[in-house]
Amino acid sequence: MKKVLALVLAVMMMATVAFAADNADTGGSNAIVGGGTDKVEIGGEAGDPGAEGVQALPGGKIALKASAFTKGDDNLAEALERNGDFSSENFSVTTKRFDKGSNLVKSVEFDDDNNYVVVKLNDNYDLKVKDTINLTIKEIKVSAKKKLNDGKVAKGSKWTYVGETDFRVGHTQLEVNITDDMELYVDSGNGVTANDGVPVPRIATGTAKLVKFVKGDASYGTATINFGDLATATGRVYKDDVVYLDYNEDVNVDIVKKYPDADLTFLEFKGAPTFNSNFEVEIYADEDQYIYELKDGKISATSLKWDEDSYAFTGKARTLGAYVISDTKLSVETTAADGNPDTGANDVVGIATALAAVALVSAAAVSLKK
Fold it and tell me: Measured between alpha carbons, how far is 25 from 91 in angstroms, rounded to an integer?
């Protein structure tokens, strides 16, 4: 029933997103600078960002087109003529300077698939967008590795983007009024809907996923959070609780390589949301499957157990992390309790060790009596 309900809500959300397509960002979490104008393009629509700056999402990217780079009066896009030439094969990033917010930047590199230089931003699931500017690009410079377009772009020539756009990096926070019983629906990529299916406002660079519970009818209540048709978490939330609600099913290639004979699926709750109470967690899978937690790149046991009534692996947790579902039993690399490596010792050896310890204690007691 929950899977069907989640599917219906997902369809409703898609309809809502389609209705709001004119305001949606068609390029994901990208602020695109350049494109034949000095203005910033968000979702394919050119617009002056103004003094308040352009919002960019943590974990997203700021993409600079060739047209954003100049040398004197020359524009790199015009000098190249062919968009595909703007790539790491022909250019290297030689200078990256920021007036503000360098700590927010993960890297500056080429995106050869789209012919951009991208400023990749660090993931930060707690960073809330403010009205103040926290990222200012001072200068990014690229250098030609070879002669291009019959010498219109000389080998070694340097082309510069001078930052004329300020950014406000952070998540838009959705406030959810607390009621006795709340329903939230999380659709990866399309954000969150809350209570009566009221959609979260979409922002130019994505959809709000940072949720703050505020006093409505009560100061606390029970929230049921549906993560698509993959999982459900139910528990008590309190006034001013803030959690980041999103998930992905991205494949962890390193784990797949470790277990080549297993058919694996992955579920990660991004930002590892932590609640102020124990939540009842259900992760939907088949009875003949196995579920594990993924911590620091290693498989560990989980306290979640199969429940026939829910047709899911269920249990209690305050923090939602990353999980691996397998069609075969896997060797556990760390224990769920303390993270110590699994020595591979079997239960018989453990029992024998315990009995030996008891025997030593008994012998000591006898010796003291003598």
Answer: 28
Cβ-Cβ contacts under 8 Å for 336 (sequence gap 6 or more): 293, 300, 301, 302, 303
pTM comes to 0.72
Contact status, residue 265 vs residue 228, Cβ threshold 8 Å = no
CA distance 268 to 11: 22
Question: Has residue 252 got a pLDDT over 70?
Answer: yes
Of 162, 35, 165, 145, which is closest to residue 92 (Cα–Cα)?
Answer: 145
pLDDT digits (tens, 9 = 90+) for 127-140: 998 889 999 999 99
Contacts of 40 (CB under 8 A, 6+ apart): 31, 32, 33, 46, 47, 48, 49, 54, 165
Mark out the alpha helices in 64-212 (DSSP H runs).
76-80
Section 47-57 average pLDDT: 60
> What's the alpha-carbon Rg for the chain, to the nearest Å?
27
Label residue 331 exposed, middle or buried (CB < 10 Å: 0-12, 13-18, 19+): exposed
- Alpha carbon separation from 273 to 125, 209, 282 (Å, rounded): 9, 11, 15
- Lookup result for tokens 């556990």: 332
User: What does the pLDDT look like over 53-102, one tens digit per residue?
Assistant: 788 888 888 888 888 899 999 999 999 998 789 999 999 999 999 999 99
- Residue whose structure tokens are 């200012």: 136
| Percentages (nearest 5) of helix, strand, coil residues in the chain | 15, 45, 40
